[in-house]
Structure formats: C-alpha cells, structure tokens
Amino acid sequence: MGWMVSQIGAREHYATAVGLEVYSTLDQLYTDAWCRLPLSSIPKLPGPMVRYAGRADRRIRSVKSYELQLGPSHIRSAVAHRFSRNYAHELRCIEIGRRFDTLVRKDLRRRRFDPNKDAFFGYFGGALESLRYLGDQGVPTILDQTGCGRSYYEEVAAERLLWPEWEGRPPTIHEAYFDRAHDEWKAASAVVVNSNWARKSALKEGCSPDKIFVLPLAYDAPSLKVGARPPRPHGRLKVMWLGRVILSKGIQYLLLAAQLLPEVDFIVAGQIGVDANVLRKATPSNVKFLGPIPRSHAAEFLTSGDLFVLPTLSDSFALTQLEAMSAGLPVITTDRCGDVVTDGQNGYIVPVRDPYAIANAVARLDCDRNMLKEFSRLAVIRARQLSLTKYVENLETIRRGICPAPAMRDGSRGSDPFQAATVW
Questions:
Q1: What are the CA-CA distances from residue 102 to residues 84, 281, 304 (Å)?
Q2: What is the rounded CA–CA span in Å between residue 97 and residue 353?
C-alpha cells in the first residue's frame, strides 16, 4: 500500500512517480501510453517512435496503462485537433481526461484502502472521478493544478491581438474546461501548484486558500558531467531555447532581442506552433531553428550552449529552467513561472514583453565572461537544491497535513504545510 499516481502523458518525465518509487512508497502508476519494449536501445528510430520510446521509466515497477482502451472517438478527436483549428484543444482534453479517469476509477473500485497509509496524486483534467471516489473512502487526495487556468488564456488572447498573423484569432474560453477544474478542486483534499504565479492564478479563479500549496518541481540531471564545462571565455555566445515555439513562451520577443545582438547566436529547439511564413520573415540570421528534439537529447543540447532564455508570459513552472541550470546555463526569464532564478546571481529576471531587457541581460553576460562563469556555477548549485528527494519530502509534508491521523482529530493542521512545502 502507499501512493497512487494518475497521469496522462509523460509530465515532468514521470518525476512524481519516480520520486515516490525511489524515496517513498509507490503502489501504482496509472498512465495512458507506456512503452514496455526497450525501443530506446534501437538506433535511428523514426521521430514518433523516439518520442514513444521515452514514454517509460524503468525505475517504476507497477504501471497500468490504458493507451489501447481510449477507443475510436479518442483517435477521431486527435485527428480533428491535428488538422482543424476549429476543434478546441480544451474540449479534447476534457474528453480524454474523462475516458482515462473512468478507467482508473474502475480499477480503484477493486482495491481496499487504509486512509492512514494510502494517498492519491492526480493531475488537473484527468482525475475528477477518482478524486470523488477516493474522497468517499476517506483516502487523502492531492490534485496537481498543472496550468495557470484562465489567466493563461487571457494572456494568450491578449498576445494574439498584438501579433494576429502569428497564431490566428484569440482562443475561445470554454467554460466547461474551467468548470471541471473547479469540480476537481472541490473534490481534492489538497491542491498543489508549482509556483507563486500559478497560486495567484488559482486563487483568482476561486480555489480555496486553505487547500492550495506551492510544491516546486524537481529535476534530477542525467549522468552527464553537468556544469563541468565552463562557458567559453572567447567567441560567439550561444543562447539556447528549449520548448514549444509559441507566443505565450515569448518567441516573438526573443527574435526582437536577437535583432539587437547580431554578434550572439541563438539556437531554438522545439515544435513550431506559429505560422511558418511569418516566423521566417521575423527571424534574423543569427537565429537557428532545429525543430523538436527527443527528450533523451535535451541534456546534450543544453550543454552545448552558454545561456538559456525563457521570456514566458505565463507558465505554471517551466521545468526547462532546471534542465538548463543542471547543464550549467544561467537563465534569463520573467516572473511568470517557477521561482527558480535568483536575479543577479544565477541569471536575470526581466519584465514580460520587453526585448530590450532580454538583450541587455544577454549583452551583460556576453561582455563579462567571468561573471557568466560564476553565474554558471551558481546555476548548477540551484538546480541541485530542487532535487527529487526534496520534492518527495515536501509532498509527504502536505500529505501529513491532510491525512486523518489521530493528532489531527481536533481539527488542527499541525505545522503549516504551505510553508513547509515551499523551498524558497
């Protein structure tokens, strides 16, 4: 008996399930696609197969996957979403979440639980039925509110009005999507968010402040000599981008900053989510787009650079910050994501929608390579502070705060889990 984790996709590289397996007690992982064959050992796999091969972690021993049980309507909706801009991504997420969660709850009904020993961790959009059922059984349940809710869509809508040719018209806000989120908040014993920015968004949406806790994400670097290569003392600075190439990530402001820094190289890896013709016209010669790269190649990609830039408009955390810091890259970002960067120590925090601030921060480190080297050293130290062991420790603190243990029968919560679960 122990923790049950339910997640659609390989979110955070299965970090929660891996952390609980290694440092606590993981009883069961429920997920959709799970690669049970050692495909990653086969050279020159096609792109889709490389991504599928990454949908596994051999450290997790007990997995139930439902990839083949979502039915033909799941395939139809996926095709509709891929080829039609009129099919709402949010509605597809609701459909997939309901189907997946129904299968998880069906398995949960076969099990017996001890509320003092068992706990459930699920992700936004795919856990409502499980949360309700386990709540009736007295089992502590934790929901990870992975996004920034309505605030994110408001930011995207505003940005598309500023850059109408890049991604088309502003997205439609589907109330059913947010209604499901509110129902999950009510059903869960606790709601975790990964940054103070996400917490503000959830509180604005009506999530109870008594339920919500900040649980920063974690990243354990692969077995590379991360941070061992100091930034080049001479030559052209290499600034890296890793993630989707979309307006909400701030790609338009990165390109404007690059125009101001012709002596700096910018390398962008990630799926293109904007109009290709518009992007081509807006891209200066010192910017190179690589397209998407497999997750297994991310660390190698980052270690080839000197600096990482994430001018995001709204992110619940942005794990790429920790990936970059683990590779010894200082980070330039905004205050709209996880509080990872200490301004002026391991990177810079710049205002949103400000290409001049981005360019100034990059130029400062380009001109002072000794400072860049020191920032690199401190970035590795910061990344190591946000380890899986710390993440599991914080998660267990939250669980103790909501577990119906004898010490809690007087209605008190003991030590404040919010304070204990915030590492900065």
A1: 27, 47, 44
A2: 33
* DSSP letter for each residue of 344-387: TTTEEE--TT-HHHHHHHHHHHHH-HHHHHHHHHHHHHHHHHS-
Partnered with residue 120 across adjacent β-strands are 4, 141
Tell me, what DSSP letter sits at residue 45?
Answer: -
CA 58 to chain centre: 21
Q: Which amino acid is at 150?
A: R
Cα separation of the two ends of the chain: 32
- Quick one: which of 266, 387, 284, 274 has its CA closest to 326? 387
Q: How far apart are CA 250 and CA 255, in angstroms?
A: 9
CA–CA gap between residue 342 and residue 348 (Å, rounded): 7
Residue 248, CA atoms < 13 Å, CB-side half-sphere = 20
pTM of the model: 0.85
Strands (E), 177-237: 190-193, 212-214
Rounded Cα distance, 165 and 72, in Å:
34
Q: Mind listing the pLDDT tens digit for each residue in 363-420?
A: 999 999 999 999 999 999 999 999 999 999 999 999 998 875 433 333 344 444 444 4
pLDDT tens-digit profile of 113-152?
A: 999 999 999 999 999 999 999 999 999 999 999 888 888 8
Q: Contact 24/2 with Cβ under 8 angstroms?
A: yes
What is the DSSP secondary structure assignment for residue 186, as one 8-state letter?
Answer: H
* Contacts of residue 208, Cβ cutoff 8 Å, sequence gap at least 6: 185, 191
Q: What is the bridge-based pairing of β-strands 190-193 and 212-214?
A: parallel
CA distance 2 to 387: 21
Between vectors from CA 232 to CA 227 and to CA 233, what angle results, nearest 5°? 125
